[in-house]
Each structure stands twice: as C-alpha cells, then as structure tokens.
Design brief:
With 152 residues, the chain is α/β, with parallel strands linked by helices. Helices cover 16% and strands 22% of the residues. The chain has a domain at 52-148. The protein contains 4 helices and 8 strands. It has a 6-stranded mixed β-sheet. The chain has a two-stranded antiparallel sheet with strand order 1-2. β3 and β4 (82-88) form a beta hairpin. The longest helix is centred in the C-terminal third of the chain and has 11 residues, at 97-107. The chain is globular. Bound molecules: iron/sulfur cluster (SF4) (2 copies). Residues 13, 18, 29, 31-32, 37, 39, 43, 47 line the site of one iron/sulfur cluster.
Length: 152
Amino acid sequence: MVRRACGTCTACCTVMGVPDLGKDYYERCEHEGRSRCIIYESRPDGCRNFSCQWLVGAMEEWDRPDKIGVVFDITSGGDLGRIPIALEVEKGASDRGRGRRAVRFVAKNSPVLVVSPDGTRRLEGGPPDASTTLIGNAPGADMSVEREIPSD
Ligand code: SF4
Ligand code: SF4
C-alpha cells in the first residue's frame, strides 16, 4: 500500500474530533499553525495515530485533502457496515471541482457519507435503496440518512 506524507496539509486538524484535546469535529485546533502543528513532537496519540484515507494510498497523489477540500475517513454506517466518510473542509467542497470528482470516484464502490461543516449530511452511492442509521461518534451519529442521487 502507498504511504504518503502529510506535508503542509492540516485539513484533519480542523475537521476531525480529537477527544484527547476535548476538540469536537469542526473545531479548529488551538495548536494548528500555518500549515503545521505547532506541538507536533508532543501531539496527542489521537493525532499521531490518525491517517486519512488519502494518506494511506486512496485516490490520486494530487487529491491531498487540503487541495480538494475533503478529508476521507472510514466510519460505522449502521446496516451498511464500515463505509467511507467524506468530511468537507469548507461547505460545498464536495460539490465542486476535485472534491466532487473524489467523492464520485469513491461512491462508485461504496456508499459514502458526506458531511458539511454546518452539520448537513447525505449519503451518496451504494444500492439504490440504501439508507442507514449511523452509529459511533462521527458527525451524523444516530441520525437516519437517506441515499441521495447526485444530479451529475
Ligand atoms: S488530512 Fe490526511 S494528509 Fe492532511 S494532515 Fe490529516 S492525515 Fe495528513
Ligand atoms: S494537536 Fe496538532 S496534530 Fe493534533 S489536531 Fe491539533 S494541530 Fe492537529
């Protein structure tokens, strides 16, 4: 499997929840500097152990999360099992340009839960009748999400 480097990306530092820091999803981390973590050497295990799907080889090299505006992870999708989750860094990033292309690419093989910073969420791809109740602590937990048929 390809193992990439984060480089100057810090997209997950804003998007992901980090319980060690008491940081919720979509709360910008107080340790996030300009294109880097300012406590990198002593960052908590939750940060040290997190790898987004791009970092472990999914999608193309140029689809780095800060460049496409979407962070891909895996979440619990209730009846659907473990499914990809696409967290927009900025609202609408999954609907345009490279973010849109990446979501469509992943949705060819699996339902994808798409989450926006304002809390809206939709399910793309998968079986035509797919709907699920999501569990776990990811955004969308305990909420029913119906499959959305993309317009493009
Ligand atoms: S979003 Fe992925 S590539 Fe970007 S900093 Fe986080 S783990 Fe690294
Ligand atoms: S502590 Fe560092 S690595 Fe962890 S979320 Fe904050 S800025 Fe990112």
